[in-house]
Amino acid sequence: MTERIAIYPGTFDPITVGHKDIIRRALNVVDRLVIGVAQDSGKDPMFSLEARTELVKTDIQSFGEDAKRIEVQSFSGLLVNFAREHGSRILIRGMRAVSDYEYEFQMACMNARLDPQMETIFMTASESTHFISSRFVKQIAKLGGDISDFVSPEVAARLDAFF
């Protein structure tokens, strides 16, 4: 049987418990997961690419033995090219709300057009994490709020040091 390798791309600025929930659930359907920390996301990240990648690497250690099935790499350029480089034809995308659907659907269609063998698996956010976004976490941290329910202690400390 061929190893099922999936790519979970994102900016991860910063990684949240919502991202980790998608990672945990993706591991239930694939053999190996490559987390692609995107440089060219069209967003203006607060943390550098290197810092975001290191925070993801640190946070996945909480998966214990399953962390051995996860690889974290930064990437630049087309996602389909990154997926091909890793022998993957599966993209994992998390969706929090209906508002995410249109953008995610268009991106999945474009990726399939660029590589017809590429499949996108949409995973809806869990009930306990659907309201969490990196943008809100950063804003709450900036205003001195408690973000401990939304990110790991390591991420919280980095955000605290930033602000």
Notes on the structure:
The protein has 163 residues and is of the alpha/beta class. The chain has one domain: 3-Layer(aba) Sandwich (Rossmann fold). It is 39% helix and 19% strand. A five-stranded parallel β-sheet has the order 3-2-1-4-5, sandwiched between helices. The model has no long low-confidence stretch (mean pLDDT 95).
Identify the notable features of this structure and list them briefly.
163 residues; alpha/beta; Rossmann fold; five-stranded parallel beta sheet; 6 helices; 5 strands; 39% helix; 19% strand; globular
- The CATH superfamily is known as HUPs
**Cα radius of gyration in angstroms:** 15 Å
Task: Give me the CATH architecture, please.
Answer: 3-Layer(aba) Sandwich
The first-to-last residue Cα distance is 49 Å
- What top-tier CATH class fits best? Alpha Beta
Q: Strands across the major sheet, in which order?
A: 3-2-1-4-5
Topology:
Elements: E1 5-10, H1 17-26, E2 32-38, H2 49-59, E3 70-75, H3 79-85, E4 90-95, H4 98-114, E5 119-124, H5 134-142, H6 153-162
Parallel strand pairs: 1-2, 1-4, 2-3, 4-5
Tell me briefly what this model is:
This protein has 6 helices and 5 strands, in the order βαβαβαβαβαα. By secondary structure, the chain is α/β, with parallel strands linked by helices.
